[in-house]
Amino acid sequence: MSKTEVTLDKLSSLAKRRGFIYQGSEVYGGLSGTWDYGPLGLKLKKNIENLWWRTFVDERHDMYGVDAAILMNQKVWQASGHMETFTDPLVECGNCKARFREDHLNSEVCPVCGKADSMGESRQFNMMFETTIGPVNPRTTFVEKSKSSSGEVEQKISFKELPTSLVYLRPETAQGIFTNYKNVVDSFYPDLPFGIAQIGKAFRNEISPRDFVFRSREFNQMEIEYFIREDNWEAEFATWQSDIKDFLIKQLGLDSDKLHEEDVVGDELAHYSKKTIDFNFDFPHGSDELLGLAYRTNFDLKNIQDNSGKSMEYRVKGSDDSFIPHVIEPSFGLERALMAVLTSAYREDEVEGKTRTYLALPEHLAPIRYAVSPLLKNKPELVDKAREVYKLLHDKHPGRVMWDDSGNIGKRYRRQDEIGTPECVVIDFETIEDDGKVTVRNRDTTRQKRTLPEKLD
Ligand SMILES: [Zn+2]
Known about the structure:
Layout: H1 8-17, E1 21-23, E2 35-37, H2 39-58, E3 63-65, E4 71-72, H3 75-79, H4 82-85, E5 87-92, E6 99-101, E7 123-126, E8 130-132, H5 138-141, E9 143-147, E10 153-157, H6 162-165, E11 166-169, H7 174-178, H8 181-188, E12 194-203, E13 218-228, H9 233-251, E14 259-263, E15 275-283, E16 286-295, H10 299-308, E17 314-315, E18 322-323, E19 326-333, H11 334-345, E20 346-351, E21 354-359, E22 370-374, H12 380-396, E23 401-403, H13 409-418, E24 423-427, H14 429-435, E25 438-442, E26 448-451
Helix pairs in contact: 2-11
The chain binds zinc ion.
């Protein structure tokens, strides 16, 4: 099959037109860096999420799930280093005041006003969203009045009460796992190695959100902390690397030519990590990080132990052997996975002299498994039979069967192709007058076959 060139424009306009992804708050002009998922985008996202959970948690015997609060004690982010170092370099154009992430600028010219050499000094911008907890608002409550030397009354915002009322929307789900490690050990006392998984929202105040849903301010992570013995880290890392690759190619159906594993080295490697592999994918905007796999040593648990004063040691059953476990961390972004799935599935071909767009989604990920149509919607006998078939299939695939009787049959096929429905089922006169068989039309080949509805999976 010839390769289709996928652009962000093609992807985002199909996503919007067909009810996958809309701009956040669009009716009010939008909110930068936010996206709303429509009926089909939500289904696709849930299918990916559920597949991930089944593969990496439910089908294994060494995994535990948690669902931690988004708001966490700010000591979490002090201990993890996020308050100090979770920053991006920010520069401002002296001419038009537009702000950019310094490492995203690829020329000396301001992308907004076009002026050359207009960027000021870069400074570090913390990407965590702040809010306050309890009935306080630092912008109104903590204004201090004082008299200056010249006798004028000055107003100044005081930060003295902020240490207890200030909280952050979590910038990653991983810390919600680490802070529950001790709880899980105390409740279940699993043998090493074991893992804790979490799926949930994370928030980052990106300076320049862009590239469709790739870089958003609000997104979902699917993360695991896998607790191991230090001496075994290389073997455990290699197993995770190959399990992840299998998942991406065999389960998500990603185009393997577009997937690249890269060893993170030098400055890019976090100081606590002894090895990190980035799984990069050729997205429409270029090759970029789909997910990361990191060996984080015992950095996080040790930090928690040092800052909380509570022991994070694991005692091996039936022995006095105690130590802080080391950790392998696979960290997936759900929306990035979804974008890679859409990019891999997007196809254009020619059918009856016209360009056709379709999504060759794996059957288990497609939001809609079957579309069911009566050939003509003004023939009650066809409609009745079609309703019967719809119910039969809907019982097998709740929520994944679509009733589609608008427009002519050709238009219905095109619409279903665009949303990636693997098969369309059509009830015609032959069905009711002859053998009871229905026409089943395949998305990828556009070929049709006749079969009894009971025989459909
Ligand atoms: Zn400018």
